[in-house]
Design a protein that fits this description.
By secondary structure, the protein is mainly β. It is built from four helices and 14 strands. About 10% of the residues lie in helices and about 35% in strands. The protein has a seven-stranded antiparallel sheet.
């Protein structure tokens, strides 16, 4: 099968998200200039550089009360900072609650009953029990083709690691089993690992 996206795929559901999988989930916490807080998951998320460490996430939707974007990006435009919280399998249900298109005055931490701590380097809350949280300052926001497609890039200036996830000097993902996004309404979790060495490694 071959199709051009501009012509449509002819299937019952769009296969694009099912092709690019699994995707890590960036659970983005932000605070507006007025002090209101927001927490929302984004599966268009990834790390993009080591030195300095940098991440990105893309917002691709709109809310009628946010002038062509969503709460996360609106808050980031006001403050220039955000926190990425990593989602473990055990947090799947509360993460899902936070994904709702709630009014801008709804605090998803409260809505889903999620405990929060203050970040160390930025004025934002983070998910208290997350396996890891990345405190970020915005480096650039890029508008992509399409009505509401924006990519936010951030430099990581603070890193929280949950103590029980550090084993023999490594951050062990099997201690929390990262939740990943697939296509449609499907998710998965990481439950096993294997190692491959590069051909030129000794």
């Amino acid at each position: 099968m071959f199709y051009r996206p501009e012509d449509g795929h002819g299937l019952k559901h769009n296969p694009f998200n099912a092709v690019v999988t699994p995707r890590p989930i960036g659970w983005i916490s932000t605070r507006g200039a007025d002090g209101s807080e927001n927490l929302a998951p984004y599966s268009f998320f990834n790390a993009v550089a080591y030195v300095p460490p940098q991440v990105m996430f893309a917002s691709t939707g709109t809310k009628p009360d946010r002038d062509g974007t969503k709460d996360s990006l609106a808050n980031i435009r006001e403050t220039g900072v955000f926190c990425v919280n990593i989602v473990e399998y055990e947090m799947r249900d509360v993460m899902n609650v936070s994904s709702g298109s709630w009014d801008r005055d709804v605090d998803e931490f409260d809505k889903a009953g999620i405990a929060r701590f203050d970040c160390e380097t930025i004025p934002v809350s983070r998910v208290a029990d997350a396996p890891a949280s990345l405190e970020c300052k915005v480096t650039q926001i890029v508008q992509l083709p399409g009505e509401a497609n924006f990519v936010t890039f951030g430099e990581v200036i603070g890193v929280h690691l949950r103590d029980n996830c550090i084993v023999d000097g490594k951050f062990d993902v099997l201690k929390y089993q990262p939740l990943t996004r697939l296509g449609y309404r499907d998710y998965s979790r990481i439950t096993s690992l294997f190692e491959l060495k590069r051909p030129d490694e000794k």
